[in-house]
């Protein structure tokens, strides 16, 4: 969750989330979060974890949340319960071996969920977390478009979807974090 200097329920809060990483741009996003004492949720693709161990360790050390975005960016509606549990367990095993934690939440790639996949997630013990603001940063790859998407739609309780694969998203984050805090 996007938290600046602790949670104060009397003030508006938003969740800043990043999908598909870790990636080189993740480090720049972490620099911004650290500068402002903020946290975010990173929905990682499990098969990327071993390629960016220092980044994953830094996310955990800074107190940001790590959630599953499946092992290989798999659409969960096409997986039965056993296959989905195996996929999530592969993610959690890799994460646990590196930083000693398991994911508490997951984000379905593409936002695709079905009743069956929701039941499978519930039996695994993780909720599917969706979003209320899709910045389309993956499509525009334009920092100003991402900033405008957030600032024109954000309200108390918003969940912002971005992707930490792109330097343009890191550029937008550098503007958004201080603006959202203020």
In short:
With 182 residues, the chain is an alpha/beta fold. The chain has helices at 24-35, 53-61, 81-99, 115-124, 137-140, 143-151, 167-181, and strands at residues 3-4, 15-19, 38-39, 41-44, 65-68, 133-134, 159-163.
Set out the fold topology:
Elements: E1 3-4, E2 15-19, H1 24-35, E3 38-39, E4 41-44, H2 53-61, E5 65-68, H3 81-99, H4 115-124, E6 133-134, H5 137-140, H6 143-151, E7 159-163, H7 167-181
Parallel strand pairs: 2-4, 2-7, 4-5, 6-7
Antiparallel strand pairs: 1-3
Helix pairs in contact: 1-7, 3-4, 6-7
How would you explain this protein's 3D organization?
With 182 residues, this protein is an alpha/beta fold. It contains seven helices and seven strands. It has a five-stranded parallel β-sheet with strand order 5-4-2-7-6. β4 (41-44), α2 and β5 (65-68) form a beta-alpha-beta unit. α1 packs parallel to α7. The longest helix is centred in the middle third of the chain and has 19 residues, at 81-99. The protein is globular and about 45 Å long. The protein starts with a strand and ends with a helix.
């Amino acid at each position: 969750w996007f938290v600046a200097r602790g949670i104060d329920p009397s003030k508006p809060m938003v969740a800043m989330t990043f999908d598909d990483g870790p990636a080189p741009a993740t480090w720049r996003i972490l620099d911004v979060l650290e500068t402002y004492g903020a946290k975010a949720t990173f929905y990682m693709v499990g098969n990327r974890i071993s390629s960016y161990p220092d980044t994953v360790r830094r996310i955990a050390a800074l107190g940001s949340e790590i959630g599953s975005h499946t092992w290989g960016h798999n659409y969960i509606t096409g997986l039965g319960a056993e296959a989905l549990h195996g996929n999530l367990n592969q993610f959690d095993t890799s994460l646990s071996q590196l930083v000693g934690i398991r994911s508490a939440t997951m984000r379905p790639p593409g936002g695709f969920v079905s009743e069956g996949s929701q039941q499978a997630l519930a039996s695994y013990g993780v909720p599917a977390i969706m979003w209320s603001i899709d910045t389309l940063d993956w499509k525009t790859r334009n920092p100003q478009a991402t900033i405008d998407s957030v600032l024109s739609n954000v309200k108390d309780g918003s969940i912002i979807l971005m992707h930490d694969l792109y330097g343009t998203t890191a550029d937008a984050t550098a503007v958004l974090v201080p603006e959202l805090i203020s």
